[in-house]
Design a protein that fits this description.
Elements: E1 3-4, H1 5-23, H2 29-37, E2 45-47, E3 50-52, E4 57-71, E5 74-76, E6 83-85, E7 91-107, E8 110-122, H3 130-133, E9 140-153, E10 161-167, E11 189-196, E12 203-211, E13 227-234, E14 236-238, E15 247-258, E16 265-277, E17 280-291, H4 297-300, E18 301-312, E19 327-335, H5 355-358, E20 369-378, E21 384-395, E22 405-416, E23 422-432, E24 439-449
Antiparallel strand pairs: 1-4, 2-3, 4-7, 4-24, 5-6, 7-8, 8-9, 9-10, 10-11, 11-12, 12-13, 13-15, 14-15, 15-16, 16-17, 17-18, 18-19, 19-20, 20-21, 21-22, 22-23, 23-24
Helix pairs in contact: 1-2
Length: 450
């Protein structure tokens, strides 16, 4: 639900018009509304002595989320290569987050967006809760700007769009770079973005700099220096082969540069193909990485791949009620070594415990690791969704203290109530080789968009 100042203007204008009619015969609602609306549009201003018209509309919105966590944490033991439970069971960790944004439409070709975010954590501010797992070391953020950008359409060519400022951004699947909404303060990026339909090829170009990170000056892209990422991608869809349905092809190129001779450049050449054949949805992605940081082709070139399949059983099994909508999901992902992922979306890409992220391997391409998983999802009732999943994780990096296998079983359920509140409950049992007892995590999340 959006809060529109126009609605307030109408109510106030009715009252104002009533007063005007009593005091000045002939006064009308239109004049009162026009007078009142002058103070409700975005304020006029100037930048570099260039005057700007007031916005034609202004909308407020946002969301509030509260999350509670009970967990036994798995962490790398200090003196051995065997992960260990840290011995602090049943710890609570409560997170609260509020985001509020204002969207301005200057005219049909220009708009702006500003978002404020505030968050806090209590119960276990410095322990192994979600804030620590996402490198969020601060337990209180009383308010900051997470997004602030403006965009213009058809500045040079027809149908083009430019965006400048700081914003959330996810490239394709988010396995390399993306904004993870699970974080208390999701990653936002400063830069410039350009898009154009280009006769159905949908061209995108961008340049972004370090991700915002409360824990460091340089953000997550690089430990030192001035680091920027340049990228180009197209999103082309074709149904030339009728039996294969619509195929979405998304090739991309990334180049990361750091103004430091010791770190050099790094390039990603990849692509994602998505679509559906009959009742099977597929998502296949492959990327090759070339880095000159090591100056050795044998160790500076590596790959990552991922395959996800979703099978809609309801279209094959006739006796299943339509509201159940059973689905089987299977997936596998692997990377040759650390370095494929840059600042990826990680949560629940390989289990809700986020074992990879907690072991220093964010996302399914976070390191030299393999991930295999399968799940059954269904909707037992209206607005309810349930899911059970099995995940196998294997870290192949022998130099890593967390080199081991792990298995995880997840149960989760979500529901949207009539008042628009959204509930999500998740439980995970994690069995790490050589670790006893097993670890578990329980999440309870309640949110409300407004």
């Amino acid at each position: 639900m959006k809060v529109r100042l126009f609605h307030l203007a109408v109510l106030a204008a009715i009252a104002t018009a009533g007063q005007a009619a009593a005091q000045e015969p002939g006064g009308d609602l239109e004049r009162a509304l026009a007078d009142l609306n002058r103070g409700l549009v975005a304020p006029q201003g100037a930048a570099n002595n260039v005057s700007a018209n007031a916005s034609s509309s202004l909308q407020f919105g946002g969301d509030i989320r509260v999350r509670n966590t009970w967990l036994n944490e798995i962490g790398a033991a200090a003196t051995t290569s065997t992960p260990a439970v840290d011995g602090s069971p049943d710890r609570k960790n409560v997170d609260a987050r509020m985001r509020m944004h204002a969207a301005f439409d200057v005219n049909e070709h220009a708009s702006a967006f500003v978002q404020l975010i505030a968050s806090e954590n209590w119960g276990n501010a410095t322990g192994a809760g979600p804030n620590a797992a996402t490198n969020e070391t601060s337990n209180l953020d009383t308010g900051s700007i997470s997004q602030a950008w403006f965009s213009g359409k058809s500045i040079i060519f027809d149908e083009e769009e430019w965006t400048f400022g700081r914003r959330y951004y996810t490239l394709g699947s988010g396995r390399i770079i993306g904004t993870d909404d699970w974080d208390q303060n999701p990653s936002s990026y400063s830069g410039a973005w350009y898009s154009h339909p280009l006769y159905g090829w949908n061209l995108n170009l961008w340049m972004i700099t370090d991700a915002f990170n409360l824990g460091g000056v340089n953000g997550r892209f690089g430990p030192v220096g001035d680091t920027d990422v340049f990228g180009a991608a197209v999103n082309y869809s074709t149904d030339a082969v009728e039996a294969l349905g619509t195929i979405n092809i998304k090739p991309y190129i990334l180049r990361m540069t750091t103004q430091d001779a010791a770190t050099g450049t790094k390039n990603w050449f990849g692509g994602q193909v998505t679509g559906a054949i009959s009742a099977v949805d597929y998502d296949v992605e492959l990327v090759w990485v070339d880095s000159d940081r090591q100056r050795d082709p044998e160790i500076s070139s590596y790959t990552g791949w991922a395959v996800d399949l979703g099978i809609r059983l309801g279209e094959w099994i006739q006796d299943v009620p339509g509201n159940i909508d059973p689905r089987i999901e299977v997936g596998a992902a692997a990377a040759d070594k650390a370095g494929v992922a840059l600042d990826p979306v990680y949560h629940n890409t390989a289990g809700i415990f986020d074992l990879q992220n907690r072991s220093g391997r964010p996302g399914v391409w976070g390191g030299e690791a393999d991930t295999y998983q399968g799940a059954l999802a269904l909707t037992p009732a209206a607005e309810w969704e349930a899911r059970i999943a099995y995940i196998h994780f294997n870290d192949n990096d022998e130099s890593n203290a967390f080199n081991t296998d792990a298995e995880e079983i997840d149960l989760s359920v979500s529901h949207t109530f009539h008042n628009e509140m959204a509930l999500w409950l998740g439980w995970a049992l994690v069995d790490v080789s050589g670790s006893d007892p097993n670890a578990y995590v329980v999440y309870a999340t309640l949110g409300l968009p407004f």
